[in-house]
UniProtKB/TrEMBL annotation:
<dbReference type="InterPro" id="IPR004358">
    <property type="entry name" value="Sig_transdc_His_kin-like_C"/>
</dbReference>
<feature type="domain" description="Histidine kinase">
    <location>
        <begin position="256"/>
        <end position="465"/>
    </location>
</feature>
<keyword id="KW-0067">ATP-binding</keyword>
<keyword id="KW-1003">Cell membrane</keyword>
<dbReference type="InterPro" id="IPR005467">
    <property type="entry name" value="His_kinase_dom"/>
</dbReference>
<keyword id="KW-0808">Transferase</keyword>
<keyword id="KW-0597">Phosphoprotein</keyword>
<dbReference type="InterPro" id="IPR003661">
    <property type="entry name" value="HisK_dim/P_dom"/>
</dbReference>
<keyword id="KW-0547">Nucleotide-binding</keyword>
<dbReference type="GO" id="GO:0005886">
    <property type="term" value="C:plasma membrane"/>
</dbReference>
<feature type="transmembrane region" description="Helical">
    <location>
        <begin position="176"/>
        <end position="194"/>
    </location>
</feature>
<dbReference type="InterPro" id="IPR050980">
    <property type="entry name" value="2C_sensor_his_kinase"/>
</dbReference>
<keyword id="KW-0904">Protein phosphatase</keyword>
<dbReference type="GO" id="GO:0005524">
    <property type="term" value="F:ATP binding"/>
</dbReference>
<keyword id="KW-0812">Transmembrane</keyword>
<dbReference type="InterPro" id="IPR036890">
    <property type="entry name" value="HATPase_C_sf"/>
</dbReference>
<dbReference type="Pfam" id="PF02518">
    <property type="entry name" value="HATPase_c"/>
</dbReference>
Length: 465
């Protein structure tokens, strides 16, 4: 049993909460119960005293005999279950003097009580309440003054034991303690069982997470109930799925990249072998050299593209931010393509909205995106295809678009053109151009979208102005 473990903490917590509840009942509720029970008892005693005293008053005023008074006192005591004491009030040397006149207690302990409440009642002329210890325990007392010809001549004291209140409360307290002990035991057991179940679920999730961390994406995260742990399990499952996707994308990328690199290298190797042949005529040799150069160029471009892409994805590519006239930039990049357009028998039309189209961006990177788009519009379309390059401000952003009236792209292919290495025709490209272009656009807080219409393909780069 580890002290820091979830299981121990939860068990201790449930135990502690129960303990606090029991202590609160013991030390806060039971004293209140005791005093309210005592108050109730005193109230009942007072009512009894007030109901029965007038009978004594009447007898005293009508000068009843001692026997008559004794009889009345003991009959009231019988009916009320209280000890009834009648005290006579006389004038002594030190003020009022009270002496017991009649008592329902007939045994010889008649002088065991001091009846201080009676003094109070005689002096103030009002009903007085008090307590006095006795051999049978605490007594509650109510003293009612009896007036005869205007002065207080007698005091009737009703006494009843309060000890049973204390006894009752003690009993209740004992029962609370017993129930509390049971409750604590139950809290311990329930806390232990519940926390063990929770700890077990957490451990399963932990094991699954370890499995994922070690590269095994077949971990099972049982959702169980729809509580926080269930949600955590679902989140972990989601994470596992995404990691698995990333991992398979990574593998695919490496496999494709190495394949793309190997093809031209083998081709170059083959041609070099052929060229070692002494018998080769000059013309063939020149052709071979040209092919090898082409392959080397392709390889170089592929290496540059791969490097760009990996830098972009790692976020280590530094972007400049400067005020740029995109109209001028578009014109310059389009001009670079004059020879390629010539070869492809195509015309490029520039549509610039306004004299200056200013934006804060990295001009080198925007030019790179434009080059990729114009290059595609020429390489993936038949000869003679017209290309339109436009630049315009579009409320709050700048839109650069390259469109061609080539055969277009199928919807299925359009979904995938931005994936690295995706090529849908045999134009011998590496399929990295659009992947790089989109990464660049996103790094510049812009976007690159395709509009694959039939007979017209448009790629649009949007940048914040
Ligand atoms: N203007 C276009 N017209 C038709 N197809 C295009 C166009 N631009 C791109 N594509 C398609 O998208 C694919 C991916 O383009 P890209 O990422 O630049 O790679 P690459 O040009 O090396 O093939 C191309 O192989 C081509 O099939
Ligand atoms: Mg391309």
């Amino acid at each position: 049993m580890r002290w820091g473990s979830l299981r121990t903490q939860l068990t201790i917590l449930s135990f502690a909460v129960t303990l606090v509840a029991i202590l609160a009942v013991l030390f806060y509720v039971t004293p209140q119960l005791q005093s309210s029970l005592r108050d109730q008892k005193m109230k009942a005693l007072t009512e009894t005293a007030l109901v029965f005293t007038p009978q004594i008053t009447r007898l005293v005023r009508s000068n009843g005999s001692d026997d008559e008074i004794n009889n009345l006192v003991s009959s009231i005591s019988d009916r009320t279950n209280a000890r009834v004491t009648l005290l006579a009030v006389g004038d002594g040397t030190e003020g009022l003097q009270l002496s017991i006149f009649s008592d329902s207690y007939t045994d010889n302990r008649i002088t065991d009580l001091r009846f201080e409440v009676a003094d109070v009642a005689a002096r103030t002329g009002r009903t007085a309440l008090g307590e006095e210890p006795s051999r049978e325990g605490e007594l509650g007392q109510v003293a009612v003054p009896i007036r005869d010809a205007g002065t207080v001549s007698r005091v009737a004291v009703f006494s009843a034991p309060l000890a049973d209140v204390r006894g009752n409360v003690a009993l209740i307290r004992r029962q609370i303690l017993t129930a509390g002990a049971l409750g604590l035991l139950l809290a311990l057991v329930v806390g232990f069982v519940v926390s063990r179940r929770i700890a077990r679920r957490v451990r399963v999730l932990e094991r699954g997470a370890d499995q994922v961390a070690s590269g095994d994406f077949t971990a099972v995260f049982p959702a169980g109930k729809d509580d926080e742990l269930g949600q955590l399990a679902a989140a972990l499952d989601d994470m596992q799925r995404q990691l698995a996707q990333l991992e398979s994308a990574r593998r695919r990328f490496i496999a494709t990249a190495s394949h793309e690199l190997r093809t031209p290298i083998f081709s170059i190797g083959g041609f070099l072998e052929l060229m070692e042949d002494e018998e080769l005529d000059d013309e063939t040799r020149r052709q071979f050299v040209a092919t090898v150069r082409e392959q080397v160029e392709r390889l170089g471009k592929l290496a540059t593209d791969l490097l760009d892409l990996s830098r972009l994805e790692a976020g280590s590519l530094e972007l400049r931010r400067e005020e740029t006239d995109l109209g001028k930039l578009t014109r310059a990049v389009s001009a670079e393509f004059a020879p390629a357009l010539d070869k492809h028998d195509s015309k490029l039309e520039l549509r610039l909205g306004g004299d200056r189209i200013d934006a804060v961006c990295d001009p080198e990177r925007v030019a790179q995106v434009l080059r990729i788009l114009i290059d595609n519009a020429l390489t993936h379309t038949p000869a003679g295809t017209a290309v339109v390059v436009s630049a315009a401000r579009d409320n709050g952003s700048v839109r650069l678009a390259v469109s061609d009236d080539g055969p277009g792209i199928s919807d299925a292919a359009a979904q995938r053109v931005f994936e690295p290495f995706f090529t849908s025709d045999d134009a011998q490209g590496s399929g990295l151009g659009l992947a790089i272009a989109r990464e660049l656009a996103e790094r510049m807080d812009g976007s690159l979208e395709i509009d694959p219409g039939r007979g017209r393909t448009t790629f649009a780069l949007e940048l914040p102005a």
